## 1
Amino acid sequence: MTDEPSQPERWRAWTWVPSLYFAQGLPYEVVMSVSVALYTNLKIPNEQTAFATSLLYLPWVIKPFWSPLIEVVGTARRWIVTMQLACALAMGGVAFALTQSWFLVASFVCLWVLAFASATHDIAADGFYMSGMPPKDQAWFVGIRSTFYRMAKLAGAGLLLIIAGRLSERMSVPTAWAWTFSAAMGVFVALALYHQFALPRPPAPPRDENASLTFAMAETVRTFFAKPNIGWAILFMLLYRFPESQLVKLAQPFLLDDRANGGLGLVTEQVGWLHGVLGVTMLTIGGILGGIVGSKYGLRKCLMPMAVVMHLPNLAYVALAFMQPETLPPIGAAIAVEQFGYGFGFAAYLMYLLELSRGPYQTAHYALCTGFMALGMMLPGLVCGYIQKYLGYDWFFVWVMLAAIPSLLATWWAPLNQEEEMGNAADFPK
C-alpha cells in the first residue's frame, strides 16, 4: 500500500491543511510571545508583564475539560470558522484598546478572549483534521501541517514585531501596535472567510444520543490517573520546562530593556529578526533533529541527554547578561544556540507525552498531558518577573540555570514503562 493519498484527496487537502494550521499557530504565538513584546514596549514592569501573560496559559491548561463539548455541539467545521472570527474580533479589540487611556485592562481582557478562542480552535482543528481525511492521508500531511504551524510562529514572533518596530519609527508606540494588531485582525477575517468555503464537509461522526458525556469524561480522567507511577510522570511534565518557562517570559524584555537597567537596548525590529526569525528557525531545526535522534535511538536512551542539551544552552543568556555585547552577531549567536537546544530537548518531552498517552482514550489522555504541560509553563511564569526584579537580569539568568536541577532530577525519575519506539515527535508543533 502506498503512503501517498489519492490524487483528488491530496489536492483538496492542499487547499485547507496549510491555512488551517497557520491559523492554529498564529494566535498562540500572539498570546504567548507577541504580548510580551507589546507590554515591554509599553513600559509595563516585567513582573506585571510576566504574571499577566503567564495567566494566558490557563485556557490551554483546562481545555481538555471542555473538549468533549466540541464533539457533541455543532460541527468541527463550524467551530473552526467561528473561532477564527472570534480571534479576529479579539485582535481588533486589542487594537482599539491600545488607543485608549484604559488600554492595560482592556487589552488583557481581549488577549484572554483570544487565548480561549485559540485553545478552542486547536481542539476543533485537530478533530477536523482527523475526520476530514483518511488515516493514510493524515500521516502524509503531518509534516505539511507542522511546517505551516511553524510559519505562523515566524509570522508572529518575527513579522509582527518587525512591523510594529518599523511603524514605531513613524508614530507613537501604542498607535504602531494598534495598526499591527489591526493587520493581524484582517488576516483572520480573511482566513475565516476562506475556510467557510475551502474546508470540506465530511459526514458527521456517529453520536450515541444515550451516552453520558459526564460518565465519559469521568472515565477518561480516572483511567489517566490510574496509570502506573502517574505521580512521577506528572512531576516530570510540570518540571521538565521549569527553566525555560521562566526564560521565555524575560528573554524579550531583556533584549528590549535599556542597558542602564541591565538589558541589551535593542529595538523592536531587531528583536523581531533575531528572536523571531532567527530564533524560531533554529527552534524548528532543533526540533526536527531532536525528533530524528529520539526516533532512532529510543526515548529511554535519549531522554536525559536531550534534557541536558535543552538546558545547557541557557548559559548563553548568562553570558549576554554579564558581558553586555554591543554588536548584533554575538547576541544572535546566543539566541540561536539557546533556541536550537530548546527545540532539540523539547522533542523528547513531546515523545514522552505520546508514550504516556498510549492505550484507551489516547486522544483525551494526550489532551490531559498537554494541559499539565501548559500548567508547568504557567505557574513559574507567574512569579519569574518578581524574581528578575529582585535579582536583576544577570543573576536571574544564573537562577534559570539552577532551575535546571529540579528539572533534571524529575527527568531522571520519570517513569518509562514502555519500550516501543515513539516515531518522529518533531511533527508535533507545540
## 2
Amino acid sequence: MVTIIKKGASKEEISLLLEKLNNRTKYSKGFDAMKFCGTVKFKDDALKIQKQLRDEW
C-alpha cells in the first residue's frame, strides 16, 4: 500500500494517514510466517541434511 503525504501537510493530516495505515495493516489478510518459526524439529544436524540434499544432485 502506498500512502502519499503532500508537501505542506499539517501534523493532523499526517497523523490521520498514519492511523488509517495502522488500522488497515492490523486487519489485512496476509501470511504470518512468524507463527511457524522454530516449529520444525529435525533429528539430524542441519548441515548434515544440507550436504545430503546437495549430494543427491
